[in-house]
Design goal:
The structure holds two protein chains of two kinds. Chain A is mainly α. Chain A has helices at 30-35, 48-56, 66-77, 87-93, 100-104, 106-116, 135-153, 157-181, and strands at 13-19, 22-28. Chain B is built from twelve helices and ten strands. In chain B, the strands form two sheets. Chain B has an eight-stranded antiparallel β-sheet. Chain B has a two-stranded antiparallel ribbon with strand order 6-7. In chain B, strand 4 and strand 5 (125-132) form a beta hairpin. In chain B, helix 3 crosses helix 11 (322-329), helix 8 packs across helix 9 (286-301) and helix 9 packs antiparallel against helix 10 (312-319). The longest helix of chain B has 47 residues, at 234-280. Chain B is globular. Classes of the chains: A mainly alpha, B alpha+beta. At the A-B interface, strand 2 and helix 6 of A face helix 4, helix 5, strand 6, strand 7 and helix 7 of B. The complex binds zinc ion (2 copies). One zinc ion (ZN) binds at residues 3, 5-6, 8-9, 28-29, 31-32 of chain A. Chain A: Residues 138-173 form the UVR domain.
């Protein structure tokens, strides 16, 4: 994608602006981002985190006293053991290096995901057959359990008994599978 | 080569089919982003790793068929001339991003060009599936089956909490981008679309004007797609999109009727002027072509013009882009040469209809 402003360089800064309740997407190069004030000049580069911070006031601007510096340093040292990407590098490019990065940066991801996905941080969609492991069964179990509560509240005990049996057999399946894995 | 022949090769077979609500919805698309669990994402992968991914597809899926999608052919970016890449982008078979990382990137394209599986784009795998008209549910169903078919042989990067793991945090979760391409000339003319956009955004959906810079829509073509990929199931996302599109279709039809009723003669005049430009113009810039083609298409839908096929907008939107113009001319063209070629190609195309 080319820069929307100069049409010269590739767009490396992608942001969503909220103005008068309307969202606009902006795709610009680093130079234009600086000129338009999307980026702070004193920093070497702009980070996704800063971007979110700046646009949505998620974190108060940090002042450079001792305590916060420690937190800052810790954040910088966070590094993915599999691909070697640091959190800072992730935040700068806005892209992960590998699947393991999600685990490595887990604690810092929720604020970012919340901003991007309207407050959502957890997957609620498709589960792959093989990689999904026992998730299918566990989701089914959760469904049965809430169904059971509903049925008992409505005093539909016959139906409730059926569901209870389903839960038992699911539980057996789960236990068998988990034993098989270990 | 005659234009007829060129067109037959240039327009994907699925584009020539009619779909539901195709007076307003041009196409429905589902895209799924997937990655191998044990290989770093293409964003930072070494060439060796990228090659591993490509070789896997080359070995496992080349010439495989899945349901109606026969013989996936593998098109490697490194084997293509710049203009050929451009043509594939203009046909929406590959993304511009894929052409940028040419090393070990490719696309598996089904014979009818309805499905393409991009390899080593931003993610290892991007499954993309098009349907003519408004058929999101069907597109999702088939994309999901295609996904299952790949998953039989691939260990996907998946996490219980975050779902399908992708290179960019904007795709994580379902990894799905569902989008619908709509022709909304009456809503655009009456500025109503701008007023509806904020409400649509509130539902986690985005409205984009395509072929335009920023949000300006040239040719009144808009793409509506989901922005959120976490916290909602694929079916829920598609359902939300479905209901918004349904409403836009109703509003557009209502706005067309109102325009006909209130300013029928002005509308008719606008449509025939645009038709005149397309039929007799000698220099047509891409923006003007898009506007006039949109008017012509509206004229066909409203019954003012009855001897030109409805697919003309789809067709010429693709054919009059720089890559296709140059491929047809078999030479590199400057922008002003392109405007002349564009005009003559459109004239030629419309003449083809008059002969029948
Ligand atoms: Zn720029
Ligand atoms: Zn990593």
């Amino acid at each position: 994608m080319e820069c929307q402003r100069c049409h010269n360089r590739p767009a490396t800064v992608h942001l969503t602006q909220l103005m008068n309740g309307e969202k606009t997407e902006v795709h610009v190069c680093e130079k234009c981002a600086k000129e338009k004030g999307y980026m702070h000049d004193h920093e070497e580069s702009f980070t996704l985190n800063d971007l979110l911070t700046g646009l949505f006031n998620y974190e108060p601007k940090q002042s450079f006293n001792g305590q916060q510096m420690d937190a800052q340093q810790q954040k910088e040292q966070l590094k993915c053991p599999t691909c070697g990407l640091t959190f800072q590098e992730f935040a700068r490019a806005g892209k992960f290096g590998c699947a393991k990065c999600y685990e490595t940066f887990d604690e810092r991801l929720n604020p970012i995901l919340r901003r991007v996905h309207s407050e959502n941080t957890r997957h609620d969609g498709k589960i792959p057959r093989r990689e999904g492991g026992n998730l299918h069964l566990r989701r089914q179990m959760d469904q049965y359990k809430s169904e059971l509560v509903r049925l008992i509240e409505q005093e539909e005990f016959e139906e409730a008994a059926k569901i209870r049996d389903e839960i038992r057999s699911l539980d057996d399946q789960l236990q068998q599978r988990e034993e098989g894995e270990s | 080569m005659s234009l007829q022949q060129f067109m037959n090769e240039a327009i994907s077979p699925w584009m020539k089919q009619d779909g539901p609500d195709s007076d307003i919805v041009l196409s429905s698309r589902i895209r799924l982003a997937r990655n191998f669990s044990s290989i770093p994402f293409p964003t930072i992968s070494s060439e060796d790793n990228l090659e591993k991914v490509l070789n896997f597809f080359n070995g496992e899926f080349r010439n495989e068929s899945f349901r109606d999608y026969k013989n996936f052919e593998i098109v490697k970016m490194n084997d293509l001339q710049p203009i050929e890449k451009r043509v594939l982008v203009e046909k929406h078979l590959i993304s511009p991003h894929l052409t940028n990382n040419s090393v070990h990137s490719a696309s598996l394209i089904s014979q009818n060009e309805q499905v393409s599986i991009m390899i080593n784009e931003e993610d290892h795998i991007r499954i993309q599936l098009y349907f003519p008209g408004f058929q999101l549910d069907r597109a999702l169903e088939q994309a999901s089956q295609l996904d299952d078919w790949l998953e039989e042989k691939i260990d996907y990067a998946f996490d219980e909490k975050r779902g399908y793991l992708t290179a960019c945090p904007t795709n994580v979760g379902t990894g799905m981008r569902a989008s619908v391409m709509m022709h909304l000339p009456a809503l655009a003319m009456t500025q109503q679309i701008n007023r509806m956009t904020p409400a649509i955004n509130q539902l986690g959906l985005v409205v984009r004007g395509i072929y335009g810079e920023g949000s300006e829509a040239v040719g009144s073509i808009f793409q509506i797609s989901n922005q959120i990929t976490l916290g909602k199931s694929e079916e829920d996302i598609v359902e939300d999109l479905h209901s918004v599109v349904k409403q836009l279709i109703d509003q557009e039809r209502r706005a067309r009727q109102a325009l006909m009723h209130r300013s029928g003669i002005q509308l008719e005049d606008r449509i025939f002027r645009s038709y005149g430009v397309l039929k007799y113009g000698r220099i047509i810039e891409s923006k003007e072509a898009a506007k006039c083609l949109s008017d012509l298409r509206l004229g066909i839908d409203l019954g003012f013009i009855d001897h030109v096929p409805k697919t003309i907008l789809n067709e010429l939107m693709v054919l009059t882009q720089p890559g296709f113009l140059q491929q047809y001319a078999k030479e590199t063209l400057s922008p002003s040469e392109r405007d002349i070629r564009r005009a003559s190609l459109i004239r030629e195309r419309l003449q083809l209809e008059n002969k029948e």
